Amino acid sequence: MEGSFDRAHTRPAATCDVRRPARELGGAALAVALRLSGWLTVNALVTLGCLTLLFLAIGGFSVSGAMVQLANLSTRYVAADAARQTEFNTILLVGCTLFFCGTAFFRRAPLARALEEIK
């Protein structure tokens, strides 16, 4: 009876030992992906917050002033030709990229911790 009991547990244990590292690797990869997506999300939200703060500053730190400035900007954007719109789009994209890179620089420690889990 004991011999059959040992054989019955030997085969699944060997199978589990082979599959276990793959499961652990998959779990670790999912955990790292989740942390990276959280890091990217927080950086994107901080970037949007910086742009909002910029428009509030242009509007004299009041919501009504910011809305007036945004209305002025949108009117001029629609009236501009395609070359000027492309130039504005480029300026906005570069500004967003700089805000994102600045945020990423100051939040590099959580990124480093997330990437250390890969090893």
Description of the molecule:
The structure is a single chain. With 119 residues, this protein is mostly helical. Helix 1 crosses helix 3 and helix 1 packs antiparallel against helix 4. It is elongated, with a radius of gyration of 27 Å.
Distance between the termini: 44 Å
Helicity level: over 70%
Beta-strand percentage? under 5%
What low-confidence regions span 5 or more consecutive residues with pLDDT below 50?
A: none
Tally of discrete structural domains: 1
How many runs of DSSP E, i.e. beta strands?
Answer: 0
The main pleated sheet reads as: none
Mean pLDDT: 84
Order of helices and strands: HHHH
Strand-pairing-aware structural class: mainly alpha
Rounded radius of gyration (Å): 27 Å
Shape: elongated
Query: Count of DSSP helices?
Result: 4
Q: Which helices and strands appear, and what pairs or packs with what?
A:
Layout: H1 2-58, H2 63-79, H3 82-106, H4 108-116
Helix pairs in contact: 1-2, 1-3, 1-4
Name its key features.
single chain, 119 residues, mainly alpha, 4 helices, 91% helix, elongated
